[in-house]
Write a structure and sequence with these properties.
Layout lengths: L12 E3 L4 E3 L35 H7 L29 H13 L2 H4 L25 H17 L8 H10 L8 E3 L2 E4 L8 H13 L12 H21 L7 H16 L8 H12 L7 H25 L21 E2 L4 E4 L2 H14 L11 H9 L4 E5 L1 E4 L2 E4 L11 E10 L9 E18 L4 E9 L6 E4 L2 E5 L12 E3 L4 E7 L6 E6 L7 H4 L32 E2 L1
Antiparallel strand pairs: 1-2, 3-4, 4-18, 5-8, 6-7, 7-11, 8-9, 10-11, 10-16, 11-12, 12-15, 13-14, 14-17, 16-17
């Protein structure tokens, strides 16, 4: 039993050369009329008529392990099966003993041998009614699946491709073009669809190394999208079966089909995965100073840390010491209208043109205040006086829970991308005389963060390098691409936006020789329900039409434009 949810209905196949069980036959999870079911050459050479089995419920497991007695300790019984012990309650009288023996005869011994223990949680009256009793370990599933894909593509580490994997293809009688071929004293493995050339491997590694996302990037996926993903993941794994070798499909790949169900029932994954515990284990290991006495080092360091925590809690209640705020938290300030700087500032002198342009951006984008309002009278008065020539320049700023940095800051994350929606008069063409008010999107990068000094308070502005609309922005197949290496003459008179108006995005370069960048958007860790509709899980469109016509039915499983491998 490889899958704890499918139980004995888990379809497995033993590979004699790789010497392991693999879990395929995911076409059973498709609809009965799906075209993948009839593709013999794409999969195992057979037409799939079966249907997937039901998921084990808590009641099924409870009934199965009702009379199971746990054997604790590391007891080995070589050469024979585990002996089942009849509970003592069954020996009360002969009638009960006969009834118990009749029930035991109905128990599936083969199914019972798959289990090692009966969980003590089944003593709880509600446990067997829970739809999710134990969560799958998402971090190890994603880590192992990602490592399998990358190592197979790059043919390094624990690659699922090799001589034994190709021999298993020969045993199964599928993909004859990929079977190993003897050439002298060596064996030649033809280039498979997953085989990359040296140049392709270099580009692949370079893109992964140079990729930079925004700070705290995450994705808010609704339950409706999860329901669709549960069906799409089955098709995705079927496409993996089409191209990857059978040795690729270990139990971790199979468990991916259940992650959508658990996310739908259990909610956000960060409440259920092992990352906090793994990080805490890393913290405890760092306490070790003497490898000969690791337990003592951990105990002493943990006690010292606990004493310091008690002292901090005591001082926080008795003195005015403030605790450490969250990383991207804003604090209320009467001197700065919105956000806070997170870097050292420097004084700069604005020219008259720059001062007028920045002041005009503040006036045009300041929220309209009613005439009978007395709360912001002083603010309006000082804004009407205009800013001073002296201003403060920063390289980092936090506003609206987002962390921004200028392009001059080199970090592991990319926090300089800016997305801004402005209200403008639009028309269909130059000949169109009817104009309408609509939102126009602008994409750019933050090149400077300025605090305008209005004598009694500061107003933050972002000076940005914008992509020219028209020839600098294009939408191609649900992708938005921008070219930021163009002249900024068009934005010379209006390069500023208010810091509170900035929305964060990040860019991924189209290819090594192109000046076009793909726009990627996503909410921060402090996302709200208002941001959920704007969030994308990545650059891919939300709905992908996976038709079999997208792949040629007559294509060759072996690559002819790439060199194979000698072993």
């Amino acid at each position: 039993m490889g899958c704890p949810l499918c139980g004995k209905h888990t379809d497995s196949l033993w590979l004699p050369n790789s010497r392991k069980h693999v879990y395929m036959c995911h076409r059973k999870g498709l609809s009965p009329t799906h075209s993948y079911r009839g593709k013999k050459a794409w999969f195992d050479g057979k037409v799939e008529y079966g249907r997937k089995g039901r998921i084990l419920t808590g009641h099924n497991i409870s009934v199965l392990l009702k009379n199971y007695k746990n054997e604790f300790g590391n007891v080995r019984q070589a050469g024979r099966k585990r002996k089942r012990v009849i509970p003592a309650e069954s020996l009360a009288d002969s009638e009960d003993e006969e009834s118990e023996s009749e029930e035991e005869e109905e128990v599936d011994e083969e199914e019972l041998s798959r289990w090692k223990k009966r969980s003590i949680f089944f003593n709880l009256p509600y446990w067997e009614e829970l739809p999710v009793r134990h969560n799958l370990d998402v971090i190890h599933v994603e880590r192992n699946v990602a490592a399998s894909i990358i190592s197979t593509l790059l043919h390094c580490g624990n690659s699922k491709d090799g001589l034994n994997a190709r021999k298993d293809l020969h045993v199964l009688g599928i993909r004859k073009e990929l079977h190993p071929k003897a050439r002298g004293k060596r064996t030649y493995l033809p280039a498979a669809p997953w085989t990359l050339s040296k140049e392709e491997k270099r580009l692949f590694c370079k893109r992964l190394h140079e990729f930079k996302g925004q700070d705290g990037y995450c994705s808010n996926i609704s339950r409706e999208k999860i329901s669709g993903m549960e069906n799409e993941i089955v098709e995705t794994i079927c496409m993996f079966e089409r191209f990857f070798p059978p040795s690729f499909f270990d139990i971790m790949v199979h468990l991916c089909i259940h992650l959508g169900r658990e996310a739908r029932l259990g909610g956000p994954v960060h409440f259920r995965w092992m990352y906090p515990f793994e990080r805490h284990m890393k913290l405890l290991k760092d306490y070790v100073r003497n490898p000969a006495r690791p337990e003592g080092c951990i105990a002493e360091s943990y006690l010292a840390e606990e004493c310091m925590q008690f002292c901090r809690d005591f001082l926080r209640k008795t003195t005015s010491v403030e605790g450490r705020q969250e990383r991207n938290t804003e604090y209320e300030s009467t001197s700065i209208l919105g956000g806070r700087p997170i870097s050292a500032g420097r004084s700069i002198t604005l020219s008259e043109v720059e001062k007028k342009t920045a002041h005009l951006a503040v006036i045009q984008n300041t929220t309209l205040i009613p005439l009978d309002s007395t709360e912001h009278d002083d603010t309006l008065k000082w804004i009407s006086y205009g800013p001073r020539n002296m201003a403060r320049s920063y390289t980092g700023y936090v506003v609206n829970g987002l962390r921004f940095h200028t392009t001059s800051v080199q970090r592991q994350t990319q926090n300089s991308g800016v997305y801004y929606e402005a209200t403008a008069m639009c028309r269909a063409s130059a000949r169109d005389t009817s104009q309408i008010v609509d939102l126009v999107s602008y994409y750019g990068r933050v090149v400077d963060i300025i605090l305008l000094d209005y004598n009694v308070f500061y107003i933050p502005l972002f000076r940005c390098q914008w992509a020219v609309r028209g020839n600098g922005v294009k939408v191609d197949e649900s992708f938005t691409l921008v070219n930021l290496n163009q002249s900024q003459v068009f934005f010379a008179r209006d390069p500023f936006i208010m810091a509170s108006q900035a929305k964060q995005i990040f860019y991924s370069r189209e290819d090594e020789s192109s000046n076009w960048y793909v726009v990627m958007r996503g909410p921060s860790r402090r996302y709200t329900e208002a941001d959920s509709d704007e969030a994308d899980a990545g650059p891919l469109p939300l709905s992908v039409d996976m038709n079999v016509e997208d792949v040629d039915a007559e294509d060759q499983p072996a690559r002819v434009d790439c060199e194979g491998i000698y072993v």
